[in-house]
Design a protein that fits this description.
With about 220 residues, the chain is mainly beta. Helices cover about 5% and strands about 35% of the residues. It contains two helices and twelve strands, in the order ααββββββββββββ. It has helices spanning about 15-25, 40-45, and strands at about 95, 95-100, 110-115, 125, 130, 140-150, 155-165, 170-175, 180, 190-195, 200-210, 215-225. Strands 1, 4, 5, 7, 8, 9 and 11 form a seven-stranded antiparallel sheet that branches. A five-stranded antiparallel sheet has the order 2-3-12-6-10, with no helix packed on it. The two termini are about 30 Å apart.
Length: about 220
Amino acid sequence: MRRSHRAGSHVIGSAAFAATISACSLLTPLGGLSTGEDPISPEDAAPTGDASVASDATNAPDVSIDVDATVDAATRPNLHKNGTFETGCDFWGAYRSTLASESAYARSGAKSCRVCSDGSTFYSIDDGGHVDNPPVGSVFYAAMWVRKAPGYPVATKAFIMLRTFDNPPWKERDIVQSPHITLTDAWQRLEATLVVTQGQYVNVVGAGADGGCFLIDDVVLERVE
């Protein structure tokens, strides 16, 4: 089974990401980055069945990709199986969180997905990898819209991660993440662009940085080149 059970356009190459890693310890085999709290140990972080918690995330090349965020599924196909959440949170997994279909608030359509921490600081919604065997040198763009979840414990920060991984054994390969944004009652877009250097699957993760609950909707995964 492939699912990993983890989780303005922003691109991180190897030098920049290595600097990020040196300042922010990996919280989990997800590649979730530290939010200023003490890092969780790999033994505590690794879900049952994961053979490896190591990361080769710093292998991505130094690149600068200019992705036109206005170009959407009308011109580049959305590769995601369930980015609209109109059928609930199907095809998504939860890491240190619970997922529930939300019908009271949606950015488009009738539904979004509500992501709530199980009490952990870092938690995520993870699509488990929807693109198989991406070619080396291919470029992927991912975006999602997030906001506060009214009526639920407030999450103040969220970010997107876009990565590749191998499985089995599970091992994270290339990874980028967006800056952490402050959530509000308005929908905000999170974006990331990844150049593939290795890995079997392309994976989109939406993460919360401080517990609480947030809503997610309109996830897009596109191959840029």
